[in-house]
Write a structure and sequence with these properties.
The protein has 407 residues and is of the alpha/beta class. It is built from 14 helices and 17 strands. Strands 4-12-11-10-7-5-6 form a seven-stranded mixed β-sheet, sandwiched between helices. Strands 1-2-3-15 form a four-stranded mixed β-sheet. A hairpin with a 4-residue loop joins strand 16 and strand 17 (375-378). The relative contact order is 0.15. Bound molecules: pyridoxal-5'-phosphate.
Length: 407
């Protein structure tokens, strides 16, 4: 392996980067499939998938080939032109979903920002200027721009930045009566993640999602689904809404869409899209040929029966291993999730210690995520090899053995 750059150390982070993250003490320098290596050459099994982004693992040969060939062809032209990869990708997303129109951006929050602006513009122009209320949920996460963080359900993240966008109300997730209590003719949209990700891996119940759809229909409000994390195969279907027999009016996706290359998309119907006009919204880099070419390859690979069926097999392998570990150590009160987005909630006497467990796990050679202070999250590559699952789970068990001793 190439020698690492010894002029770069973890200490540098504190000297040059805005202190908004607390990254691990080691620095990864190389990745292949579901393994990564740090500067010292230590190997890790990666169950974090770059926070549900590297859905095809690290450096997938087909993505590398697409990136290389497109990088030698055309990178960027801006929106004064259209380009072949973006039109092909849009067509494929439309063919695979409820959607009829696509808007491309670069990150999840930008796709959500576009979605919320579109929802507001639609209800204002096709109903009245007072139809602006957005109903969202406690513990929801929609990104870090001021609008998206205000729709998100953690006030801690949105306070301290001056006046917030108005007319957003939060109610408990999976509680249809709470939605009924606040919805009215002024409601513009209900915004939700079909599986709350950052909030703790909480899937919507079918009754809740179906009930929300009916309420939206009754009050002429739009249903906006944020599938930035749970979309693109993560749940075992291309998009999570497909498990529920409920269609959104607007859907956003990002993270896994580019497999590690930044791109996001907002999908909607022709009728809703028609309220937008030239210059009502836009972005410089959104829909660039390089990102769209990579995402087209990602979509081609994920949206195949072989890959989607494989996700359920891997789900079972993870659940089985987690249940065996839990039977031995009784460390979790619940193991939940759909497809390859799994959450294991720490039992009461371990509460608040998820991040501590992640550090021990990394020492033992497996990289995991948390989702809040009490939930260990798994969001591995959708192609993770069975032997990597087994090996990673052995490391995880060693970590739990040490962790539960320190109780
Ligand atoms: C990660 C995430 C976002 C934000 O995406 P960025 O690319 O970080 O802007 C929005 N919504 C959900 C559900 C997410 O998981």
């Amino acid at each position: 392996m190439k020698k690492h750059d010894s002029t770069v150390t973890r200490k540098m982070f504190d000297q040059v980067i805005l202190p908004v993250y607390a990254p691990a003490q080691f620095i990864p320098v190389k990745g292949k499939d579901s393994r990564i290596w740090d500067q010292q050459g230590k190997e890790y099994i990666d169950f974090s998938g770059g926070i549900a982004v590297t859905a095809l693992g690290h450096c997938h040969p087909q993505l590398v080939a697409t990136l290389k060939s497109q990088s030698e062809t055309l990178w960027h032209t801006s929106n004064i032109f259209t380009n072949e990869p973006s039109l092909r990708l849009a067509r494929k997303l439309i063919d695979a979903t409820f959607a009829e129109r696509v808007f491309f951006a670069n990150s999840g929050c930008e796709a959500n920002e576009a979605a919320f602006k579109l929802a507001r513009h639609y209800t204002i122009t096709s109903h009245n200027t007072y139809k602006t209320k957005i109903i969202a949920f406690h513990n929801a996460f929609h990104g870090r721009t001021l609008f998206t963080v205000s729709v998100g359900g953690k006030p801690k993240y949105s306070t301290g930045f001056g006046p917030k966008p108005a007319d957003i109300i939060h109610v408990p997730f999976n509680n249809l009566n709470a939605v009924k209590a606040v919805i009215n003719d002024q409601t513009c949209a209900i915004v939700l993640e079909p599986i709350q990700g950052e909030g703790g891996i909480t899937p919507a119940t079918p009754e809740f999602l179906q009930g929300v759809r009916t309420l939206c229909n009754n009050y002429q409000a739009l249903l906006v689904m944020d599938e930035v994390q749970c979309g693109m195969g993560r749940s075992g279907k291309l998009f999570t809404y497909m498990h529920y027999k409920v269609q959104p009016d607007i859907l956003t996706t990002a993270k896994a869409l580019g497999g590690g290359f930044p791109i996001s998309a907002m999908l909607t119907t022709a009728k809703i899209a028609a309220v937008m006009d030239v210059n009502t919204h836009g972005t410089t880099h959104g829909g660039n040929p390089l990102a769209c070419a990579v995402a087209e390859t990602v979509l081609d690979i994920i949206n195949s029966p072989e890959v989607l069926n494989g996700i359920n097999k891997r789900h079972k392998r993870f659940m089985n291993a987690l249940n065996i570990i839990n039977a031995k150590y009784q460390i979790f009160i619940q193991i939940r999730g759909i497809g390859l987005l799994l959450g294991a909630e720490l039992a009461p006497h371990f509460r608040g210690r998820a991040r501590e467990l992640l550090h021990i796990a990394a020492n033992k050679g497996v990289i995991l995520l948390n989702a809040g202070p009490n939930v260990i999250r798994f969001a591995p590559s959708l192609l993770v090899a069975f032997e990597d699952i087994d090996q990673g789970m052995e490391c995880f068990e060693k970590a739990i053995s040490q962790f539960s001793d320190t109780n």
